[in-house]
Amino acid sequence: MRLLSLALLAPLAQGFLPAPAAPRPFTQRAPLHMSAPPKTRKAPVFDEVCETTGVTLTRFMIEVAFLNPEMQELPALFSGISTACKAISDMVKRSQLTGLVGYADGGGSINVQGEEQKTLDIMTNDVLKRALRFTGKLGVLASEEEDTPVGVPLNPKDVVFDETSKYTAVFDPLDGSSNVDAGIPTGTIFGIFEHDDECEIAEGGSMTEDELLCLQNTLKPGTDLIASGYCLYSSSCFFVVTLGAGVYGFTLDENIGEFVLTHPNIKVPETSKIYSFNEANMPQWDVPMRETVEKWRLGTGASGNSFTSRYIGSMVGDVHRTLLYGGVFGYPSDKKNVNGKLRLLYEGAPMSFLMEQAGGLSTDGRGRVMEIVPKEVHQRVPIIMGSKKDVQEVIDAYAKSK
Ligand code: AFP
Predict the structure, then answer these.
(1) In this structure, which CATH number among 3.40.50.1100, 3.40.190.80, 2.40.420.20, 3.30.70.1130 belongs to the domain 274-400?
(2) Which residues contact 180 (CB under 8 A, 6 or more apart)?
(3) Spatial CB neighbours of 66, under 8 Å, sequence gap ≥ 6
(4) How does it assemble (predicted)?
(5) In this predicted model, what pLDDT tens digit does every residue of 69-87 receive, in sequence order?
(6) Which of 172, 315, 329, 362 has most ligand 1 atoms within 8 Å of its beta carbon, as the pocket-test mutant?
(7) Atom 3 in ligand 1: which residue has the minimum CA distance?
(8) Which residues of the chain fall below pLDDT 50?
(9) Spacing, Cα 92 to ligand 1 middle (Å)
(10) CA torsion through residues 211, 351, 147, 30, sign
(11) What is the dihedral of CA 278, 280, 286, 292, to 10 degrees?
(12) For the chain, what are the domain ranges?
């Protein structure tokens, strides 16, 4: 396999990737043909084994691949991701003892988005890249900690499974890392797209037009995801995943070193009494958002419920609670951050896929987050997601304000 180094890619990518998104209107939604599931993306079939608590993730994936031959390469990829999650869980848990705390290089290590990187940001990105690389199932990956998508070179000496079809993985290796040293929950978010096997990027020389197009092909809307999920590093280590037919939650049993199914077919309650936003930004929010939350506070919203507030400031923790208890989590557009704060490709879209598969909704206020086609890897998107009826109230408020 030909290689593409990050150093080579960065300047070239800057040349062809569009400039950062302009202020609103900021969304380009997928045309109908893109939002329809591609032919390989029929909803997988599960049997009763996959609904039974106590089944390990390994067994679950084997059953899924057995019942859905088009997914037979996913177990190898999931084995890589889940192993990385176990390693990261251990790293985070022991970081106070091993000294993996604070900023990388004693401070001053800045990622492409201008954010200062924690030691754990860099290490967890590395763990994921290595774990995925050795599965032999990955063509390209994009990460919060990488400037642009990078090819995943295989060392010919590595022992790999047969290399027939490949995937593109997007991930945020350690979401919420700014809080990690205070023991606050953090998580890894991932999304898996199909990768065009014809699409190889050569090492050296300038990129051909076809290669540039290939690279741009990694910028896909959430409707093209074939799987997404997260690992939550908290009181337990959770692995929550969707393959496009429901949401399944596993808990790490440290005694046997396996993720075990504890939450089959998660369904988010239709309505709730919890909202989860950084309320310090409230005066800057769009009027429909502000007015809806005001009503929830006063108990005068559509449900008549008086809401309470729960906000960790760590998306994986906030979304996990929302999936289990119901509620509305979001980072809406505000005057300072017109496109919100969260990243579309590796935070917004994968989490929206999970939320929708659990029966909830996810919107940027004007439409489905899942249908937005990214123009660049680190594009941000406003997000409001969670219990169906409550999120619908926000969508209706935006619609009325047009
Ligand atoms: P960090 O990874 O830099 O800690 O950011 C976390 C995050 O991307 C997401 O997990 C949170 O929901 C959101 O930012 C919190 O943002 P505020 O600190 O502005 O509330």
Answers:
(1) 3.40.190.80
(2) 92, 95, 118, 120, 174, 186
(3) none
(4) Homotetramer.
(5) 888 889 989 999 999 999 9
(6) 315
(7) 178
(8) 1-26, 31-40, 156-164, 203-204
(9) 17
(10) positive
(11) 70
(12) 50-263, 274-400
Q: Which residue, by CA, sits nearest to atom 2 of ligand 1?
A: 176
DSSP 313-380: S-HHHHHHHHHHH--EEEE--BSS-TT-SSBIIIIIHHHHHHHHHTT-EEESSSSBGGGBPPSSTT-B
- Taking a C-beta distance cutoff of 8 angstroms, is the pair 129, 141 a contact? yes
Q: Which helix (H) or strand (E) holds 66?
A: helix 57-67
Residues with CB under 6 A from ligand 1: 175-179, 278, 313-315, 331, 341-342
| Cα–Cα nearest to 225, from 125, 131, 345 | 345
Amino acid at 171: F
Q: Using the mean position of ligand 1's atoms as its centre, give its distance from the Cα of residue 280 in Å.
A: 13
Ligand 1 centroid to Cα of residue 115, in Å, is 11
- CATH superfamily for 50-263 is Fructose-1,6-Bisphosphatase, subunit A, domain 1 (3.30.540.10)
Strands 186-195 and 247-253: unpaired
The per-residue pLDDT for 37 is 45
What is the predicted pLDDT for the residue at 148?
65
Helix, strand, coil percentages, rounded to 5, for the chain: 40, 20, 40
Pairing of strands 247-253, 258-263: antiparallel
Is 0.70 surpassed by the pTM of this model?
yes
Looking at residue 156, its pLDDT comes to: 43
Ligand 1 atom nearest to CA at 187: 10
